[in-house]
Amino acid sequence: MKLYPKKPLVLVPGLAGSRTEFDAQVARFAGAGPRQRRVVAVEPPETGDLGVDGQARRLAGRISGEGPCVLVGHSHGGLVALSLAVQRPDLVAGLMLLDVPLLLPPPLRVLARLPLALLRTPLGRPAIRRFFTATFRPADGPAWRAEVLARLDRVPAHVVRAVVAGTFTYDSTTRLRALTVPAVCVRANIPVRLDRLPATVRGTEIAGVGHWPHVHAPEATNRAIALLLDTVEEQGSS
Q1: Which of these, 41, 49, 128, 143, could form a disulfide with 22 (CB 3.0-4.6 Å)?
Q2: CA dist 37 to 17, 67, 73, 176, 229, Å?
Q3: Coil, strand, or helix at residue 10?
Q4: CA separation for the pair 29, 75 (Å, rounded)
Q5: Between the CA atoms of 98, 82, 160 and 59, what dihedral angle is there, to the nearest 10 degrees?
Q6: Residues 64, 181: Cα–Cα separation, whole Å
Q7: pLDDT tens-digit readout, 153-192
């Protein structure tokens, strides 16, 4: 088997996410010997410019010394990774959008904007909590649900407002069309219209595992990441 230079792998969680969500990916890809590669799992920011593009600029500063990286962004973190891939293709060798809210059916886009009106009222926090609860599926056991909601409760209100607003107002369609790096969109729980992806973005699905496939289906997620890494590294060696 031909071995190619290993690109660093950067893992970006979403709202109320944690780098510990990616423990299975770190264990798989930060291997020894010929499998060894640099793997960076970041924590979501709570200060500075919390818009999607602002977070992407901060992430650029975080990884600028790593060389061109392969980004895996989950949920809102996928929008940040997408923004960085468009802003700074010199820093991004490949992109995986892991159950990211983009290319949604029109009725769902309208429904998703409803919490925005409540964010600056006393009903904002309970509304977002209910929104998160509605994303849970049978794969999300009681302990996982409690962990996610506890993390959400610890996120400062200004961060929740900025991230939710960015999630549902960001023009991801235009950014998808502007991509110049190899990219794959993985649908899990969010009904992304894979048939509407640009021809340059490959779509795939990990079904029946809810919104956190990297946690509940790590082997399938890791296979998808490995395929993207192989594609990026083979292209880079040609």
Answers
A1: 41
A2: 23, 12, 18, 27, 11
A3: strand
A4: 21
A5: 110
A6: 17
A7: 999 989 998 998 888 888 899 999 999 999 999 999 999 9
